[in-house]
């Protein structure tokens, strides 16, 4: 903007739906019933309702030629940061055990639940960077860098992430041990106590230092 300071603020409100594949990187079909694809319409795996990103860069140069010593010490520093926050992404309530017996164990859901009908944990992080220019030449330059990711060490929980998007096991289809002769195989749905509980987290606070040579 001015005086060595630049700011950027972006907010996105979005709503994405589809009725077949969950994401551009889908590894297996996510259609539970190929004869009723209309029932598959729901939130896309790439849907994220709210996302906020704020970045800033400050490169103050308080001293000029008449203060050569102070210029060498306090100039050529650059401070920058990024704040990113987003609402939870869609979560598919998967059922284990392939109850419809189509040999695809990744597409089945608990009866009565739509595809991607739940929302996973939200996410927020703050990253900071400090840069000091050590030497500048017309052919190369040397910089010192200190970077801190997830500065406030926020516990960004997450559930299972697959090639098909975010998923969580809602239950299991359990068969009986000895099916009666000429009758349907006895089975039942069993809910899992771990459903909707985060299984891991994104990276905690990380700090790194570097020397950068550009030529």
Report the β-strand fraction as a percent range: 35-45%
Strand order of the largest sheet: 1-4-5-8-9-15
Anisotropy-based shape: elongated
Average pLDDT, all residues: 81
Whole-Å distance between the termini? 28 Å
Number of continuous helical runs: 1
- Strand segment count: 15
Largest sheet: 6 strands, antiparallel
Helix content: under 10%
Rg of Cα set: 26 Å
* Series of secondary-structure elements, N-terminal to C-terminal: EEEEHEEEEEEEEEEE
**Count of the separate structural domains:** 1
The assigned structural class equals: mainly beta
Unreliable stretches covering 5 or more consecutive residues? none
Task: Put the structure in a nutshell.
The protein has about 220 residues and is mainly beta.
Characterize the structure shown.
This protein has one helix at 68-74, and strands spanning 5-13, 17-18, 42-43, 50-58, 77-86, 90-96, 118-119, 123-136, 141-149, 157-158, 160-162, 165-175, 187-191, 200-201, 206-214. With 215 residues, the chain is mostly beta strands. A 6-stranded antiparallel β-sheet has the order 1-4-5-8-9-15, with no helix packed on it. Strands 6, 7, 11, 12 and 13 form a 5-stranded mixed β-sheet that branches. It is elongated.
């Amino acid at each position: 903007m001015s005086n060595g300071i630049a700011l950027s603020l972006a907010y996105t409100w979005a709503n994405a739906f589809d009725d077949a594949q969950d994401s551009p990187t889908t590894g297996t079909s996510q259609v539970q019933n190929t004869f009723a694809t209309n029932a598959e319409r729901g939130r896309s795996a790439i849907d994220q309702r709210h996302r906020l990103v704020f970045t800033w860069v400050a490169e103050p140069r308080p001293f000029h030629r008449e203060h050569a010593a102070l210029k060498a010490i306090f100039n050529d520093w650059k401070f920058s940061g990024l704040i990113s926050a987003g609402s939870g992404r869609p979560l598919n309530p998967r059922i284990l055990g392939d109850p419809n017996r189509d040999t695809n164990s990744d597409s089945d859901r608990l009866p009565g639940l739509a595809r991607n009908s739940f929302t996973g944990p939200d996410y927020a992080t703050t990253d900071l960077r400090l840069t000091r220019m050590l030497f500048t030449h017309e052919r190369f330059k040397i910089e010192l860098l200190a970077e801190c990711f997830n500065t406030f060490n926020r516990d960004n929980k997450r559930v299972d992430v697959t090639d098909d998007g975010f998923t969580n096991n809602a239950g299991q289809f359990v068969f009986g041990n000895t099916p009666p002769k000429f009758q349907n195989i006895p089975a039942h749905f069993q809910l899992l106590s771990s459903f909707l509980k985060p299984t891991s987290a994104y990276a905690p606070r990380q700090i790194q230092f570097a020397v950068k040579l550009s030529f």
